[in-house]
Structure formats: structure tokens, C-alpha cells
């Protein structure tokens, strides 16, 4: 069994009379990408803040990289990297200076810090940002630098809170490729929050949907897509006679089967599983019915998201840059 990088059992968190997280329960295997989806105010940022030890939960048990967050927060922090919604890059420093600063904060020796900086500048294709002020770099380059700074301490678990917000499509793809390489080449675990459903579909091994502080679904992208109706197999036929024979044959077992008499196509309800498709093709074969190449269409994550969360309410997550009371480790009002 793959060891767990993150486990959370029942964390709860409130801000005033607003319950933001209500008994979150999840497990994330090492060396995987886990995506947490949810509308604004669902509690995604709060979940990241708790699991990355930035704030302490009101209740619940959490472990990250094998460390209990209540008893061993400092040990957990050594294994954690965090890239928040807003860049931590200092715009008045060059890319190299930003990385040197992070190396100093991580207490790396001078030689090790310089070596790690050079390595990350190359890994993230940041040669152009190395010697110029970060404020003059593009948004995509600053975001790559932000992630590179997170990796200075060689964390085993990385929290990415909406890392591609505001990036153009090309920068999106670049960031996705970086995330894939981190997992494939370095075996890190990525905990990703995002509102870009394609991002979760492309990157995540498992996806959880958070709504009003509660997990409402969890699974692979394909498992989530099968949670809601609407999937079907589209069959096309060469002539009207074959089309009518197919309609009669399939109507014996199927009641709802939309048909297009002009295009000679049928939409056969299906959950998209191989077994279901095989059963359909076997039925056609038994009736000696020739059909064109079937098209399997299932709901996408947009459909899943809307079906599971409905209309989002007013956000109750605190802003990502909300100050934290050093005594209570709780977000406080300005």
C-alpha cells in the first residue's frame, strides 16, 4: 500500500460565527497530485492553511509527511512547501536574489544555497529572470519563480493554492508541465486547489469537491464524471433501413433513446464503462446490425461541479494575505 503524504480526520474551523470547514476527511498518497475543487468560499484556502500549519484547526487530527500537525508542527514544516494565491516574490530583487533569500531563510549553507539557486534557475527556465528585478518579469515568469522559491528547501509535500490564477493559456501549460515533472521525476506530492476544472482533469490523480466546508464527492476524474447522468454512446448508421432495425432492437431494452432521423444517429444512455460499451456492441452484433464508429460522451467536470455544488454562496474564506494572530494561530480581522 502506498504511504500517505497527507491525512486529515475531521478538522473543523470557524471565523466568528461562520463555519468554514466542517469535518474534512481525506487521504493523499505519496507521489500523487490531489486536487481540491470548490466555489469561492467553500473553504479551500482554509484547508491549505491548516494542512500547511499556517493556522491551527479548532478540532480534528491531521498528519503531513508522517508528522502530527498538533504535536510536531515544526517537523512538518521542514517537509512542506507552499505557493499561495498571491506571489511571495519580492519585486525589487532579481530572480537570483529572491532564491538566495529563500535559501537563507531555509538555513542552507552559502555554498549549498548558491548551488540550489543555480539548479532551480535552470530547472524552471528562469535564466532571463536571474539578474533583473522580478517586477519587470512577465506574470508567468514570476509564477515560476514563486514555485522555484517554494522548492529551495526540497519539500516532499507542496501545497499549491490556485497557482495558475491570472496566467495566460501558454503559461498555464508551462506550469502544468512543471507540476507533472515534479511528481514524475522527484516523487513529490502535490496538493492543488483550483477553480480551473480542466486543470484538475489534466493533472490530478484524485479530485475532491468541497462545498460549504464539507466534502461532497471524491474520486478520480472519471469516477466523478460517472456520478451524474447524461453519459451516452452516439451511434451512426449508413442507411435508413439499418437505422430502423437498430431502433427496434435497442428499444426492447431501452426506453429513453434520443434519435436523429436526418443524421441517422442514436444516443444510447451509457455510463461510459468498457463493460457497458461491450454489451451494446455485442447486442448489435447479435442482431447483425452494422454501425459506424461509436462515440462515447460522458459529462465533464464542469457538469459534475455544477451538479454537486449548485450556486456558490458569499465567500467566507479569509483573504490569502489575512494576518495571523501569533498566539492563537487564527486569522484575524484587520
Descriptive account of the structure:
With about 325 residues, the protein is α/β, with parallel strands linked by helices. It has eleven helices and 15 strands. Among the domains are: about 5-80 and about 155-225, Rossmann fold; about 230-300, Alpha-Beta Plaits (2-Layer Sandwich), CATH 3.30.70.100. The strands form three sheets. It has a six-stranded mixed β-sheet with strand order 7-8-9-4-10-11, with helices on both faces. Strands 1, 2, 3, 5 and 6 form a five-stranded antiparallel β-sheet that branches. β8, α6 and β9 (about 190-195) form a beta-alpha-beta unit. The longest helix is centred in the middle third of the chain and has 18 residues, at about 170-185. It is elongated. The chain starts with a strand and ends in a 25-residue tail after the last helix. The model is unreliable at about 310-334 (pLDDT under 50).
Amino acid at each position: 500500500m502506498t504511504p500517505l503524504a497527507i491525512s486529515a480526520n475531521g478538522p473543523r474551523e470557524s471565523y466568528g460565527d461562520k463555519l468554514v470547514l466542517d469535518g474534512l476527511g481525506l487521504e493523499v498518497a505519496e507521489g500523487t497530485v490531489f486536487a481540491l475543487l470548490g466555489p469561492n468560499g467553500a473553504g479551500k484556502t482554509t484547508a491549505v492553511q491548516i494542512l500547511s500549519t499556517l493556522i491551527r484547526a479548532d478540532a480534528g487530527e491531521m498528519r503531513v509527511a508522517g508528522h502530527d500537525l498538533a504535536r510536531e508542527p515544526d517537523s512538518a514544516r521542514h517537509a512542506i512547501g507552499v505557493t499561495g494565491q498571491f506571489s511571495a516574490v519580492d519585486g525589487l530583487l532579481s530572480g537570483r536574489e529572491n532564491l538566495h533569500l529563500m535559501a537563507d531563510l531555509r538555513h542552507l549553507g552559502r555554498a549549498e544555497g548558491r548551488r540550489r539557486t543555480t539548479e532551480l534557475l535552470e530547472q524552471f527556465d528562469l535564466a532571463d529572470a536571474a539578474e533583473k528585478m522580478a517586477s519587470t518579469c512577465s506574470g508567468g515568469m514570476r509564477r515560476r519563480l514563486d514555485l522555484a522559491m517554494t522548492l529551495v528547501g526540497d519539500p516532499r509535500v507542496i501545497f499549491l493554492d490556485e497557482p495558475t490564477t491570472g496566467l495566460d493559456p501558454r503559461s498555464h501549460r508551462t506550469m502544468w508541465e512543471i507540476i507533472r515533472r515534479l511528481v514524475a521525476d522527484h516523487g513529490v506530492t502535490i496538493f492543488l486547489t483550483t477553480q480551473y476544472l480542466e486543470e484538475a482533469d489534466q493533472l490530478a490523480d484524485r479530485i475532491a469537491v468541497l462545498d460549504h466546508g464539507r466534502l461532497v464527492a471524491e474520486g478520480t476524474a472519471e469516477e466523478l464524471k460517472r456520478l451524474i447522468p447524461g453519459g451516452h454512446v452516439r451511434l451512426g448508421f449508413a442507411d435508413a433501413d439499418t437505422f430502423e432495425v437498430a431502433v427496434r432492437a435497442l428499444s426492447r431494452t431501452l426506453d429513453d433513446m434520443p434519435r436523429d432521423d436526418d443524421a441517422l444517429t442514436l444516443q444510447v444512455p451509457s455510463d461510459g464503462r468498457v463493460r457497458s460499451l461491450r454489451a451494446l456492441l455485442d447486442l448489435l452484433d447479435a442482431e447483425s446490425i452494422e454501425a459506424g464508429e461509436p462515440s462515447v460522451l460522458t459529462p465533464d467536470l464542469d457538469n459534475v461541479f455544477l451538479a454537486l455544488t449548485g450556486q456558490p454562496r458569499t465567500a467566507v474564506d479569509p483573504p490569502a494575505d489575512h494576518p495571523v494572530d501569533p498566539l492563537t494561530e487564527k486569522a484575524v480581522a484587520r
